[in-house]
Amino acid sequence: xxxxxxxxxxxxxxxxxxxxxxxxxxxxxxxxxxxxxxxxxxxxxxxxxxxxxxxxxxxxxxxxxxxxxxxxxxxxxxxxxxxxxxxxxxxxxxxxxxxxxxxxxxxxxxxxxxxxxxxxxxxxxxxxxxxxxxxxxxxxxxxxxxxxxxxxxxxxxxxxxxxxxxxxxxxxxxxxxxxxxxxxxxxxxxxxxxxxxxxxxxxxxxxxxxxxxxxxxxxxxxxxxxxxxxxxxxxxxxxxxxxxxxx
Length: 247
Prior knowledge:
There is one protein chain. This protein is of the alpha+beta class. It has helices spanning 11-24, 35-42, 46-59, 89-95, 114-119, 158-161, 169-176, 195-200; strands at residues 62-65, 69-72, 79-82, 100-111, 129-139, 142-152, 181-192, 208-218, 223-231, 236-239. Helix content is 27%, strand content 33%. The strands form three sheets. The chain has a six-stranded antiparallel sheet. The N and C termini lie far apart (52 Å).
């Protein structure tokens, strides 16, 4: 008789599968039972369930609201793009057939802070007047990104955004055609959400965020736009095509 080898899956994998099946049966916005009750229903330890739920929150499958509970997140489309070509979040969403909206919009003109001065490539003692554009991007009412652009006033001012501003400083610069834009140097890091971004993005404090710090250059190698963007991982997939070294 042939021997049948049974492979036992790790407990957290079983819990992920069971919880996924449960979530699929619930409507977005449905509140899950408290952890002790849910752990008892699923027949698992609270520690294992807590770890799985944390993973689901980071993926955007579940959403936690401070002092309220855990809810089934909206099943909005995932925005996926390559990083080889720079395009605005607005254009990316439009290309994928997703409608984005702008909330918590703040536009102001002021002197750049020391860190912003350095980010824009000026000497640290320079006095630089800049346009600051802060906003949260939502899809179907759910925050998916927090964007901040710092642009020297010589390139853009408040009036240039217009009443119909839809969230993309890059698209405005491209439409203007001057200065001619060349490249964007972007640093990509993972960062935990502090209280400020947890509140703005309606996620739990300490949740993982994807942070992109970018410098957009003109052809004369001046920084036209210094931006800091935070993306909720469950709603985005970024990929990079890499050439294989033959050495």
